[in-house]
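Design job #97: recover the sequence.
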């Protein structure tokens, strides 16, 4: 468990304290994938670097498995840091060392001197990230995705219980991003590692995270399960992130519904309800007409979900909504937005 208690952080700039993170509390459970999303300058890097004390907080406590990181003397902090792996946007590999040597580096730092056991561990790690055939290559000979796999193998070398990912896929193309995220999800599942990642892309959060915190100008403005935050964003910053992750026609609020007759509703289906044929049944039972304006079916991590934007007409719309809610479907009335109110 990672716990932030009344943590805040300011940087000293030109003799003045400039706040980067307002006081906040946050708990990250063992074994979860926790995302922190925010725009540039929101404080994401600062927040993630507080966990291994690459940045010291200006106040408050950071507890990792009940150890107060801020109170550790230097030697104990070094030891505690070995339990926290980290990967970076620009990989931070040693250019003059081979893939195998890069992965062996943290083992050496931790005091491993037996060449055979080091070789065995490096082989295991390279197999896990799918780079066995590239052990003797240099970073410059690898693609971005392969470099990040080396970064992941290196971060896992000392069997950490926490993996911090600092914009780990931001320098990668969408396909490579997907394969690196799949690898992180597999590591989380199989090694039961806690993963904390920062990103400015909601799609990254949707694909791998269990829970998310939204950071806006140094303040956590919203947090919760990814399904709740993604399907029902409350803060304007969160809504912008969610809409960026949706194709325009599916991002309900963007469509021009002002002229559409009837009541415009957004239906959200999660898990098994995604596949239930509720709409046809409700139409038959209540005589309500549906006009589908936008829709999508996708997954939030392993959870299938669907969202449909509908115009509903008929005398028994309220009865139809009650039946839909009873079937476990979340129903919201969309306030049609005029163009000047769009955020
Ligand atoms: N070492 C530093 N000295 C002074 N100010 C800093 C330092 N590091 C960060 N800041 C400031 O703190 C605020 C938060 O920065 P941070 O890098 O944590 O944000 P971020 O969300 O990670 O942004 P990005 O996505 O651009 O990396 C910014 O206003 C930044 O200018």
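Job complete. Output follows.
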């Amino acid at each position: 468990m990672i716990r932030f208690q009344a943590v805040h952080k300011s940087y000293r700039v030109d003799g003045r304290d400039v706040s980067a993170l307002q006081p906040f509390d946050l708990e990250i459970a063992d074994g979860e994938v926790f995302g922190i999303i925010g725009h540039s300058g929101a404080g994401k890097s600062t927040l993630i670097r507080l966990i291994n004390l690459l940045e010291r907080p200006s106040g408050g406590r950071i507890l990792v498995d009940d150890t107060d990181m801020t109170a550790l003397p230097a030697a104990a902090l070094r030891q505690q840091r070995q339990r926290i792996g980290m990967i970076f946007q620009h990989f931070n590999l040693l250019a003059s060392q081979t893939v195998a040597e890069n992965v062996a580096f943290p083992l050496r730092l931790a005091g491993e001197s037996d060449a055979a056991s080091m070789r065995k561990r490096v082989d295991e790690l390279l197999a896990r990230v799918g780079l066995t055939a590239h052990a003797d290559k240099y970073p410059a000979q690898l693609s971005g995705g392969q470099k990040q796999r080396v970064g992941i193998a290196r971060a896992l070398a000392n069997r950490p219980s926490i993996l911090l990912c600092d914009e780990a896929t931001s320098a990668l193309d969408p396909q490579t991003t997907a394969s690196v995220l799949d690898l992180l999800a597999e590591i989380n599942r199989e090694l039961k590692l806690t993963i904390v990642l920062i990103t400015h892309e909601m799609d990254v959060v949707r694909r791998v995270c269990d829970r998310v915190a939204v950071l806006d100008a140094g303040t956590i403005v919203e947090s919760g399960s990814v399904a709740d935050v993604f399907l029902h964003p409350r803060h304007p910053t969160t809504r912008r992130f969610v809409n960026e992750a949706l194709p325009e026609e599916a991002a309900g609020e963007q469509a021009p519904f002002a002229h559409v007759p009837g009541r415009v509703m957004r239906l959200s289906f999660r898990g098994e309800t995604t596949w239930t044929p509720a709409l046809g049944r409700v139409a038959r039972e209540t005589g309500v007409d549906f006009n589908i304006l936008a829709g999508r079916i996708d997954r939030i991590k392993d959870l299938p979900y669907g969202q449909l934007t509908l115009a509903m007409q008929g005398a028994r719309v309220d009865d139809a909504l009650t039946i839909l809610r009873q079937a476990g479907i979340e129903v919201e009335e969309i306030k049609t937005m005029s163009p000047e109110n769009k955020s």
